[in-house]
Design goal:
The chain is an alpha/beta fold. Helix content is about 45%, strand content about 15%. The chain folds into three domains: about 45 residues; about 240 residues, Pyrimidine Nucleoside Phosphorylase, Chain A, domain 2; about 90 residues, Pyrimidine nucleoside phosphorylase-like, C-terminal domain (Aldehyde Oxidoreductase, domain 3), CATH 3.90.1170. Bound molecules: uracil. Uracil binds next to helix 9.
């Protein structure tokens, strides 16, 4: 079948035979066909979706297009976590070390900023000396010796996804549930994990704006995980306001360190413990999620989780000896409440873009980030504020960028007479 026939099949809602799909994608990855043939196919998938079987085949082709890590023969349960991305989402930085302190092995390949959302790799790079591009051998060795390694994506894991993702990015085909599922799951499965917990964000600051969209994505990701023998749990959490106290670069790393030392914001710790409980139950460390929460609390209170974080940082060349003096911003400004009442709505998407304007994310691929940049949230949904109270404290080292962020934040928190409660989790 040629590419035109495949597109016609997809448009007619027919199932593409496995061998045809395999040879088509393989031909694109090997460059025997080009973007001109792949683009109509991606658009047809974007418009018509894919069956479970087709999504599994897509994942498999991407997975086998590059290197895979094998942890066979290793005792600890090997697991990872993935989030669909949000504002102030620092869960990986806190959860990873807690899980490693609990005895799990955590090989975590993280991403850079995407649109209005922050990137875990970018945040780790604010630690002086911290290496985010180790070889896969070093990555694996660190997981085996320290119990955890967190670094960026490598060129050799799922090159087919890299190539197709780049084309999706410029053809308006990013937001397709089967394409997202193949893309995310191939990279996670390539880490050699036995278990995975997914944090599907939903709300006005998430890529999945509605609970229904989030549920569809969650179900497909879980289906793919299980098809590859990876125990996969899904948590649906809110992105109707930023998570935790801050959104930015070094400030989020500092907040994560506080959290690992026992001073974590309630919403952040609830999400961390919820995800962590799924992994501890998967790993057989405990049977009940209630005891899983107390195991995690103890690891934080005893200092073991923070010790694991320090061990990981040192193993990757990082130096936190001067942490309290790091990345001092040159400029700062505050956005104040213009009336009294309760915060009833936060425009999280807008807050995320204000963070990008400050220097925490990229509009263009080569934009330079400002490690000093960030926003501290002085009030969140349900909080009572009086006119003139601080809402957003913004900081960075470029005054023009600071002013443009401040302007866009003016209307990002709506104040009203009713005390609203923020719902942190949605059930499936
Ligand atoms: N993140 C990925 O890795 N792939 C997607 O398609 C979307 C988000």
């Amino acid at each position: 079948m040629n590419s035109n026939q495949l597109v016609q099949l997809k448009k007619a809602g027919e199932i593409i035979p496995k061998s045809e799909l395999e040879s088509f994608i393989t031909a694109y990855v090997n460059e025997s066909i080009g973007d001109d043939e792949m683009t109509p196919f991606l658009k047809a998938v974007h418009a018509n979706g894919m069956t479970d079987e087709e999504t599994i085949i897509l994942t498999d082709i991407m997975l086998n297009s590059g290197d895979r890590i094998h942890f066979s023969g290793m005792d600890p349960y090997v697991a990872d976590k993935h989030s669909t991305g949000g504002v102030g989402d620092k869960v990986s930085m806190v959860l990873g070390p807690i899980m490693a302190a609990a005895g799990l092995a955590i090989p975590m390949l993280t991403g850079r900023s995407l649109g209005h959302t922050g990137g875990t790799t970018d945040k780790f790079e604010t630690i002086p000396g911290y290496q985010t591009s180790l070889t896969l051998e070093q990555f694996k060795a660190n997981v085996e010796t320290v119990g955890i390694c967190i670094m960026g994506q490598t060129e050799t894991i799922c090159p087919a996804d890299r190539k197709i993702y780049a084309l999706r990015d410029v053809t308006g085909t990013i937001d397709s549930i089967p394409l997202i599922s193949g893309s995310i799951m191939s990279k996670k499965i390539a880490e050699g994990i036995q278990g995975l917990v997914l944090d599907i964000k939903t709300g006005n600051g998430a890529f999945m704006k509605t609970v229904d969209e989030a549920l569809s994505l969650g179900r497909m990701l879980q289906m793919v995980g299980e098809a590859f023998g990876v125990k996969t749990d899904v948590v649906y959490s809110s992105m109707n306001q930023p998570l935790g106290r801050t959104a930015g670069l070094w400030c989020e790393m500092a907040e994560s360190i506080d959290a690992l030392q026992g001073d974590g914001e309630k919403d952040l710790m609830k999400v961390v413990f919820e995800l962590g409980s799924k992994l501890l139950v998967q790993a057989g460390i405990t049977r009940s999620e209630t005891s899983a929460i107390s195991i995690q609390e103890n690891l934080v209170q005893s200092g073991k989780a923070y010790e694991k974080f320090e061990e990981m940082v040192v193993a990757q060349g990082g130096d936190l000896s001067n942490a309290s003096q790091l990345h001092q911003p040159r400029f700062e400004k505050t956005v104040y409440a213009e009336s009294s009442g309760y915060i009833e709505f936060m425009d999280t998407l807008n807050i995320g873009w204000a963070g990008v304007a400050l220097g925490c994310g990229r509009r263009q691929k080569d934009d330079r980030l400002d490690p000093t940049a960030g926003i501290e949230f002085k009030a969140k949904i349900g909080d009572k504020v009086a006119k003139g109270d601080p809402l957003f404290w913004c900081f960075n080292s470029n005054e023009n960028q600071l002013n443009s962020a401040i302007n866009s934040l003016q209307d990002s928190a709506r104040i009203g007479p009713e005390k609203t409660t923020h719902k942190l989790f949605f059930n499936n």
